[in-house]
Amino acid sequence: MCGIAGIVTRDGSPPSEEILRSMAEAVAHRGPDGEGIWIVPGIGLAHRRLAIIDLSPNAAQPMHDLSGNFTIVFNGEIYNYCDLRRELEAKGAQCRTHSDTEVILEAYRAWGVNAFLRLHGMFALGLWDAHERRLLLVRDRIGKKPLFYAMTPDGHLAFASEIKALAPITSLAPDWQAIRLFFGLQYVPSPLTGFEGVKQLLPGEVGMFDEKGWRTEKYHEWEVGSRKSKGESQIESYDEHIRFLLHNAVKLRLLASDVPVGAFLSGGIDSAAIVACAATHLERPLQTFTMGFPSLHMDERREAREIAEQFWTDHSEFVAQPEHLAVLLDDLVAQYDAPYADSSALPLWLLARETAKEIKVVLTGDGGDELFGGYRRYRAYEKAIAFAKIPFVSLASGVVCCASFAAPNWRRFLETVSAARRDPCRAYGELFCGSYFATSRLHEIFHPEFLRETETADAVDFITERTSLVERRTSPLEAAMHFDLTSYLPDDLNVKMDRATMRFGLEARCPFLDQELVAYALALPLREKINHGKKKIALRRAFFGVLSDAVLYRKKRGFQVPLADWFRGQLGFLLRERLLDPSLPIARVIRRDAIERLIRENAHGRDHGNRLWMLLTFSTWLEKHS
Is 82 noted as a catalytic residue in this protein? Predict the structure, then answer.
């Protein structure tokens, strides 16, 4: 895991070493173990190293192949590099190191761009082909590792692991279309970034820059195609295969490291399954780390402790306090670069900071909800679609939704039922955005001028369009899950994990996002994931007898932060300071009376924690980039 950056000049002149070093310095936290700069006419590459595999100086980057024709900067890990190395050496390749970076170079030499289809892992890389005078930028299938790029006014191409590294060579002006999408999603969807002229490479995409200019193409797409269940023997096969694939994914991520590996542990099934698998492959106790809260209804330390005791881990736990948020707000916004409002970034930041003091690599449970149907909204969506097929219920919901006596959760559910009758895909968009600022709420808080200028960038429309493309060949619920896998996961969850861990030089590995496990899970029948309100059906069965019933059937909490409570108490001053001052840039976009109403309603018991956090992070971001 590392930080990478580079510049390709349109006129063939050597890039500025000063600018390249500034770009490298901007991502120095991603690679505290070394720096490398390489400049020749037409191209300059920079690398900050976090040494995980082959700790010797021979594995430093930028790295060249023996011929000198190919040069690479690479961020990530290739878990099948040993197998590829043996295959390449049988073809005559001569490897000088034990690193996965050199294997990528030799694979490209042997197979060209088809080499990227052979890589099993997480990666973002820049590869200079001197013979073709061409730069390749490539990102892994699931979007674990980030890669941003921009064209300069002079026609040069710059790229980097984080947007802040592009600041020395291009302006970072707000992109208001992307910002409107952010308010519905809590993240900016790729290829947008929140900045004009700066894009992000999509998961499973390769970009090329040569004399013909810049172009991109997808080398991989995730497809939904359910297998048909064939009775009890088939179900047993599902369970065995899920267990096998997860065990293998964990084993690969433990072996592909020359430093100790630990794990994040909550009280849920995903991280518990990872720890259970890891414990069978280690001779020493696995180090596990948990973050909790003072608020008991959101704290999972006790549950995590029970799992740690079952698998004899070396366990550590920490507590996130409201004062942490007040102190770290500016740092969080600066680290994430783009507008970003997933509140669990705060406890993850604290957990990564403490974990990095002990180890350099950590396993996480990310991906289990998207693959096996773990989100509460999936159950609500499944029920809404079923209710929408009953004519009387659909008609009645439209009346009840308008009733002032309906509880907020019921109103939201009945609104989803009503929307599902008209358009199931749009219903999911409204359900997803309902926790933030869906279309109707946008009109309540934004100034009319902003809404007119950004009317083509609506988050509900965005989700509707994305899910509709998939729903044509599958079910609405599978289309919703596919959206989460291909947008919410790479642009929110992967971003959160990458920026928080890499800020402290900690590498996060996610066994559930192993490409073989992802492909298998996508092909499972929907009823093996969600059926009549039951979630993660096949995954729970696969670990029956391995994990306790308390873990298998515990109600999902997620990494939730008690924001509504904190804003009613110790953090109320932050809202006043950063949202209500009329001299702040946010005042030009959002109506003060709308913010005051949200604060007032939250103080009287309504939960506007997510919305107020979104406004708080946006105001901080906008002040930095105005």
Answer: no
Sorted by sequence, the CB contacts under 8 Å of residue 81 that are 6+ apart come out as: 53, 99, 100, 103, 121, 256
Q: Please state, in angstroms and rounded to a whole number, the distance separating the CA atoms of residues 621 and 585.
A: 10
- The answer to whether 191 touches 199, Cβ cutoff 8 Å, is yes
Considering the candidates 2, 277, 401, 433, report the single residue annotated as catalytic.
2
Per-residue pLDDT tens for 219-276?
999 988 655 555 556 767 899 999 999 999 999 999 866 778 999 999 899 999 999 9
* Closest alpha carbon to 364 in 512, 216, 193: 512
State whether residue 566 is helix, strand or coil: helix
Largest CA distance in the chain: 75
Q: Which residues pair with 406 in a beta bridge?
A: none
Instruction: Quote the tokens at residue 503.
Output: 């800020």
**DSSP assignment of 14-60:** PPPHHHHHHHHHHTGGG-BT-EEEEEETTEEEEEEE---S--SGGG-
Helix, strand, or coil here: 271? helix
Upstream peptide bond of 191 is cis (omega within 30 degrees of 0): yes
Burial class of residue 532 in the structure, from the number of CB atoms within 10 Å of its CB (0-12 exposed, 13-18 middle, 19+ buried) = exposed
The number of helices, as runs of H, and strands, as runs of E, in the chain is 26, 17
Which pLDDT does position 403 carry in this prediction? 45
Element (H, E) at 468: helix 459-471
Cα distance between residue 453 and residue 297, in whole Å: 42
Say how far apart CA 599 and CA 615 lie, in whole Å: 11
Q: Where are the beta strands (DSSP E) in 155-241?
A: 157-160, 198-200, 205-210, 213-218
CA atoms within 13 Å, Cβ hemisphere of 510? 29
Expressed in angstroms, the distance from the first to the final Cα of the chain is 32
CB atoms within 10 A of CB 232: 8
- Eight-state DSSP code of residue 511: G
